[in-house]
Amino acid sequence: MYTIALLLFPLTSLATLNGHCSGSKAVDNYKTSGICIRTSTCNDYHGEYISGACPNDPNDVKCCIVGKYPNAGTNPCGQYSVCDWTANACGGSWKTGLTRVGYCPGGDNYKCCKI
């Protein structure tokens, strides 16, 4: 039984795909609004990504932001919009329904805020 627990324990230290950015490089918008996704997915959404903010994930998983500085001109769901966590305040309204599989990558808790 202890062997099984030891084998499973390292899995709990991995950051979650489609989860919040949390590594030492997750600062400013990357910390508050970033999502850990594959770099190819970030590119599909015209996002910007940084290394070191999704600890212990594979090399192709990085912290991505869409529509916020440094790529504020992206506007994922129309003029003046950003992808953000629904737990954060949206300065306008959450764009729901049409998801590219939505306007933003990730799950139901990461949506486009139309400002």
Any overview of this molecule?
This protein is α+β, with helices and mostly antiparallel strands and 115 residues long. The protein has one domain. The chain is 16% helix and 22% strand. It contains 3 helices and 6 strands; from the N terminus they run ααβαβββββ. The strands form 2 sheets. The chain has a 3-stranded antiparallel beta sheet with strand order 1-3-2. It has a 3-stranded antiparallel beta sheet with strand order 4-6-5, with no helix packed on it. The longest helix is centred in the first third of the chain and has 7 residues, at 2-8. The protein starts with a helix and ends with a strand.
Observed structural traits:
about 120 residues, alpha+beta, 3-stranded antiparallel beta sheet, 3 helices, 6 strands, disordered N terminus
Short description:
Helices cover 16% and strands 22% of the residues. It has helices at residues 2-8, 29-33, 39-44; strands at 35-38, 48-50, 61-65, 81-85, 93-95, 110-114.
